Amino acid sequence: MTRTIESWLTDMDGVLVHEGKAIPGAAEFVTTLRDRGRPFLILTNNSIFTARDLRARLAASGIEVPEESIWTSALATAQFLSDQNPGGSAYAIGEAGLTTALYESGYTLTESDPDYVVLGETRTYSFEAITKAVRLILGGAKFICTNPDPTGPSTEGPLPATGSVAAMITRATKREPYFIGKPNPMMFRSALNRIDAHSESTAMIGDRMDTDVVAGIEAGLHTFLVLTGSTKIKDVDSYPFRPSTVVDSIADLVERI
Q: Is 132 annotated as a binding residue?
């Protein structure tokens, strides 16, 4: 049975942009969504940047997206904590994307007896901050991470990211974190709530089988895998699950809107 798709979720890197440049068809896809009034969100596990930062970065590549149409793992984490423990406190390791989201959700950022230690992505992980996180978790703070990605990209090559630093903290504390970002379908469900969409009529577009596609399947969405990012067509059969549809790129989906 062919689903009627009324709302769209899409990954950013590898789907809309690659190394700061728009992937052909991406600007047209987003413009068509906006022109036809389709609810949509652009999702990213990157917790470094605020939605405003990412809007500017996309605009520089030629893709015009309103700030409110961007949903980061930092925003999803702040929403989760606000739902779980409104007005709580956190010791946060991360950049402006995370600290701004927590602050705007009503959280107090503190090093003194916080409810949570929240680990996000940063290019300057501090041994002092990691030590502080270990001691706070051992003292009773709950351990939350924005996303499980073990590495992040840089012009020089891969960098240790949230998942790798989380593993170090877990080894020191024997406490496993709760990860909010992909592949946890929690991030997709919070995105659906944000645009008041239903899983039965929403599609997810991603370039990774192990995050975008599996989380989309678990959230009950129609999943499109594009081949402009991490996953190649020869890799698909190695997974025990399959996307609903495989297409070459985002350009092939403009006519589906």
A: no
